[in-house]
Design goal:
Rossmann fold, 5 strands, 7 helices, homodimer, five-stranded parallel beta sheet, alpha/beta
């Protein structure tokens, strides 16, 4: 069976793709979609290419859409004074931080839906996680179910009776569990990139939400992050 | 109140925006979003700029996303042998034609949703029409309602209790009724562009679904299309 995976180059989407593949006994034919949306750094895209190669992806499509024009996020802004937050208490923070990109997962899933219809994929795999995450609304299970309901009505395939399923293998896992599953599957997290705002050297800042959640996950999994070796 | 209008440069979105504005006694502050998605011709974008100007749009954002990479539509293909269908019987055809662009309205509404959240717009106006249309699944009322349900879950604004409404002033109108309403509002349809595949001169082909539906609409409204004068 064919599936589209939204692949960012981060740890989560890499693991989600690998779990989906491992869970499919018939062999999953993975098509990867990476969106270049004006995030602060290009390293994510390079990591996505490395990860796609490691996963044995059949096709890797990179689409560009400049969400900086829409704005509303510190993740897509280079404006002076608009910084990615650092040193937040990610374990207990409950607000939605400035790195939230308005409607990002809706946009990404819509693009994946279009491609799924064209290539006849029945599944879309997305590495959203509603446990150790930054509180983004479009990572929650109820959002995913609403998107599936929309997908059934949105496409020619849907009209003809096909259902596109959105698979979220990480949605109920802690970051530590994600890393444990990935390591058990033999994944090389040295290929990935998580930092929201790396310095000129490309090294992770260690202080943004994404770095902090990753560090917490590796610590709780009792593993060493290969990026920090 | 502020609203996003998806403005293509065609007759429908122009009229939808004008009706939404006329229907809002408090005065609607319209922000127009035009998506350049790799359609066959650039004339649509020029028409969108003319129409935005005529409507007194506060801001006009043009976003580019190359849906040709996704494929699956004669509207975004320049491949030899992939042609926009001509001379179809648009009044009675019931199949979904090759000009269908997979998930297009889902993608467009998602982008509008992101911008709506950033600028605090409560409404998205879209000129879909489920009567005199080409049978596209993402023009139907049930699709629009499903998108509204998704929007309520997808965004920070939704989490905080705001509802984004998708307004479809044309959804139950015939093409003739759309044109009658527009003419009554003083719209200049000479500014618009409808043809899916104009020749090098820019003149409408007169034979694609879009030209045929437009001609049928003007004929039934008893009006002359200024583009054909």
């Amino acid at each position: 069976m064919r599936a589209i995976v939204l692949l960012s180059g981060g740890l989560d989407s890499y693991t989600a793709a690998a779990i989906a593949k491992a869970d499919d006994p018939g062999g999953l034919d993975l098509y990867a979609l990476t969106i270049s949306y004006g995030q602060r750094h290009a390293q994510e895209l390079e990591a996505a290419r490395r990860v796609a190669c490691a996963l044995g992806i059949s096709r890797h499509l990179e689409l560009a859409i400049d969400l900086r024009a829409i704005g509303g996020s510190s993740l897509t802004s280079n404006a002076p004074g608009v910084d990615v937050p650092r040193d937040r208490d990610v374990a207990s923070a409950s607000d939605i931080p400035s790195t939230y990109v308005p409607a990002r997962n809706t946009i990404f899933l819509s693009l994946a839906l279009g491609w799924a219809e064209v290539v006849g994929a029945g599944d879309i795999v997305i590495g959203v996680n509603a446990l150790d995450y930054s509180g983004y609304p479009d990572c929650r299970p109820e959002f995913i179910r609403a998107f599936e309901a929309l997908a059934a009505l949105a496409t020619r395939a849907g009209v003809e009776g096909a259902r596109i399923r959105v698979r979220t293998p990480l949605i109920a896992l802690s970051k530590a569990d994600i890393i444990r599953r990935g390591l058990a599957l033999g994944l090389d997290y040295g290929l990935t990139h998580s930092c929201y705002d790396p310095g000129a050297s490309g090294a992770p800042c260690g202080r943004c939400d994404s770095c902090l959640l990753r560090a917490k996950g590796f610590a709780e999994a009792g593993a060493v992050d290969p990026l920090l070796r």
